[in-house]
Amino acid sequence: MYRHLHHVNNRANGSVGVVGREPRSPADPTYDHAVIDEGRRLSFEARADEYRTARPPYPEALYEILVQRCGLGPGSRVLEIGAGTGQATRGLLARGATVVAVEPGVRLAAHLAADIGGDALEVVNDMIETAPLPDDSFDIAASATAFHWVRSEVALPRLARALRPGGWLAVWWTVFGDRTRPTPFRSALDRLYERTFPHAPRDPLTGPLNIESWRDELSQGGWFTRPDVEQLRWVNRLTPDGARRLFGSFPNVNELDPARRAVHLDAVADLVREAGGVVLDPCVTVLYLSRVAAQR
């Protein structure tokens, strides 16, 4: 039913209205599922070449949880939602799984296929709301920092049908910046973002850290059990260039006019230089784990 990228079922730019959720805190771009933005869904396409090197990999501990709890490993089949350029795909494949990666961005999907490839990976250039999904075919449906772009009321029943009985839904995000571990770099970064985005709300409990709200959303309709939640704390090593690429990969920064974007990212890089040239930036990866409901 699936076709490889060069024969792809490409409806990502069609009339189906998939929407994204808008980041609520500019220096800490965590996404809130309650705020819908029609324009950002495919915004990463414009900078696909940069995006592939901008975001760090996910912590190894996350994949170990997927191995132990969900059976990730040789012989398992994973449906990945919003794979981007493969930051999570690589970790899934490294555990021996076969992966069908659904990615609506044409250029992002092309990078994914070209950079990783192999018989264990199939790339589908489509939206999860419209991609052809065979019933009872996957052990895990996984989404890494992407589910805020999904119409969950449409996707959840489709995912439940695509999973085998007892299958798992694993949804996670990395939150850049950990409010429980303040640092001088983050304090300076917040001040910079307050100057660049003076009217942006700053609620640290929106987005992935709004735990009960996301547990409600992922279990809506009774398709999946109420999720268990894991919070994995780690540090991301930032250099001036790495910080520039990371913060330049978020939609709010990319919506600035080119001159303001350049000034802002220069200032981000300068903060790292002022901190000695390398910053260990605290992060949190929030993982939601749920199983297909017994009666679906």
List keywords for this structure.
296 residues; alpha/beta; Rossmann fold; 7-stranded mixed β-sheet; two-stranded antiparallel ribbon; 10 helices; 9 strands; disordered N terminus
Short description:
The protein is an alpha/beta fold and 296 residues long.
Helices and strands, with pairings:
Layout: E1 20-23, E2 31-37, H1 48-54, H2 60-70, E3 77-81, H3 89-94, E4 98-102, H4 106-115, E5 121-124, E6 138-144, H5 152-162, E7 163-176, H6 184-196, H7 211-218, E8 228-238, H8 240-247, H9 251-254, H10 258-274, E9 279-291
Parallel strand pairs: 3-4, 3-6, 4-5, 6-7
Antiparallel strand pairs: 1-2, 7-9, 8-9
Helix pairs in contact: 1-8, 6-10, 8-10
Q: How would you describe the overall organization of this protein?
A:
- This protein has 296 residues and is of the alpha/beta class.
- The chain has a single domain (5-177, 202-235, 284-291), classed as Rossmann fold, CATH 3.40.50.
- The protein is 32% helix and 24% strand.
- The chain contains ten helices and nine strands.
- It has helices at 48-54, 60-70, 89-94, 106-115, 152-162, 184-196, 211-218, 240-247, 251-254, 258-274, and strands at 20-23, 31-37, 77-81, 98-102, 121-124, 138-144, 163-176, 228-238, 279-291.
- The strands form two sheets. It has a seven-stranded mixed β-sheet, with helices on both faces. A two-stranded antiparallel ribbon has the order 1-2.
- Helix 1 (48-54) packs across helix 8.
- It is globular.
- The two termini are 23 Å apart.
